Amino acid sequence: MPKVYKQLCMSAARSLICEAERTLSLAMILSPLSSQELYALSTLTFGQQQYLVERASQFMDVQIDIQKFRACLEELHDHQRRRALEDRYLELGAPLELMRRLFGLNAGEFSYRRRLLDQGGIGNGRPQSCSENDEQQAWRHWQQHSHLDEHQRFLKAAESSGLTLRQLWTSIKAYIDQDPIPCNRMPSITVTRPKASM
Question: Sorted alphabetically, which InterPro entries does this protein's record hold (predicted)?
Fold first, then answer.
């Protein structure tokens, strides 16, 4: 019998005994044992407990549901990818309003995550106005990535334009808020360039 399997069985048995000692009702939920058997477990001496634990592989069965295990791994990877995306947004200067819209972060989480990334300066105050040139650049790059979903679209538009996500959000927020169409399906917007002087 593999050593790791024996150790898992011993851990499971030790946990069952500990639960039986702490609360009988909880142990009954976790075990098919009768109340009398669980009571007997709760009154064992330390030496008696060790005797059972060392022989746990004879009466305990440890199994892995491979499908559920893989599903949990995928959930973990999704969480890691989401966390990395959130961190990238914060590094690019995303304001609280945008982080709340895309990821559901509240003010406390936003401030805490910024501190973890050592992001000082402006974070959740009133967005500063952008220059006309910044706004034109923001719209141009926003349109170029119209095929992406909203999360990736903001990121790619900021990276390709060289603007911070705060500047990008300030430039396009008003249109997005007024338009019921999801912003990854927004219609094309023509940016009017100033006429060259004669």
Answer: DUF2857 (IPR021364)
Nearest to 191 by CA among 110, 151, 147, 133: 133
How many Å apart are CA 100 and CA 106, to the nearest integer?
Answer: 6
CA–CA separation, 23 vs 151, rounded Å? 47
Identity (one letter) of the amino acid at 64? I
In the chain the first and final C-alpha atoms are separated, in Å, by 90
pTM > 0.85: no
Give exposure, 48-69, as e/b (b: 16+ Cβ within 10 Å): ebeebbeebbeebeeeeeeeee
pLDDT bucket at 35, cuts 50 / 70 / 90: confident
